[in-house]
Specification:
Catalyzes the first step in hexosamine metabolism, converting fructose-6P into glucosamine-6P using glutamine as a nitrogen source. With about 375 residues, the chain is of the alpha/beta class. It contains 14 helices and twelve strands. Helix content is about 45%, strand content about 15%. Helix 2 packs parallel to helix 8 and helix 4 runs parallel beside helix 8. The structure holds 5-amino-5-deoxy-1-O-phosphono-D-mannitol.
Length: about 375
Amino acid sequence: EKGKYPHYMLKEIFEQPESVKRAMQGRLDEEYATAHLGGLNMSTRELLEIEQVVIIGAGTSYYAGMLGAYMIENLARIPATTELSSEIRYRNPIVKRNTLYFAVSQSGETADTLYALRELKRKGGKVLGICNVVGSSIARESDGGVYIHSGPEIAVASTKAFTSQITAFYLFALLMARMRDLSFEDGLILLRGMKELPDRINAVLKQSEHIKHLAEKYSYARNFLFLGRGLNYPVALEGALKLKEVSYIHAEGYSAAEIKHGPIALINPDTPSMFIVPRDELRDKVITNMKEVKSRGGKVIALCTEGDNGVRQIADDTIEVPEVNRYLNPFLMVVPLQLFAYYMAIKLGRDVDQPRNLAKSVTVE
Ligand code: M6R
């Protein structure tokens, strides 16, 4: 089943051009520069009445939700936030009439998310699912939703589900934005950019040898920081989670701006930082944060846009990805982080597909 790949994790990382394509299949509408998501089971009128979106999930699905909230807010201008399933359930959540909830779960069986969904529904909340496994508990108990069609994800570390979950959110954000303020032209730019994603992801995958080499070079480190801002802040959190899970190296994800409020005290030559710094509106700010790390003796790997000389001059090493619409950077940025974690785990002799202490789906609270 793994075919030519030694591990499921690597196979699933390499499947992403196809799995992202499947998540978009039949859902993009060029004529109206919008998306169709039939499974939402909501009329256009009902969608128009939404005043707030709250997304719940755990682990990688939670980080996908963070990105989703950011996109919905940015593009559709609807207030959107993310909550950990395990927290919202016990917070006596306030459920309001025009709030739409999303429960994000690859397996559709995560107990924390399932129980939170039930609590929200009990209070009259409308909850949609973003699931991979068809017919799973969360998919069945939600009021509708979006299947991401990733195909089976076997490795404990989630990879292709993440890129498909965010695809689902981009589609939803596009749909909602085009009903509100986003122009046809701007909608089309995003939609066309999304269509090109499989090719761009392929270009990133071609750099796997370089990423493997970097993982080996930095395998001396016992601590790692992952730093990004804006849309790439959740990507930094996801990169840190991947490294922890499969390599057992201690890693923390932060907003690059936050390090000066404490974590910069950790910087030393043995604690490298992975900066996510695409060419976008926050690039210059992140470069300033990179300089702060360098001047304190920290090593910097920068994940940046192809040919960014400004970044090359500061970083010790770079991983460069093609230029895309600024909203789409997270798709290209997360792939090298998945590969980096994978190769690090291999270098350290870890059980990549079945890391210690972890199960694929966590069906206990
Ligand atoms: O099946 P789910 O998406 O609900 O799972 C949620 C988390 O348990 C899961 O994402 C976990 O964090 C992964 N092992 C991350 O790689």
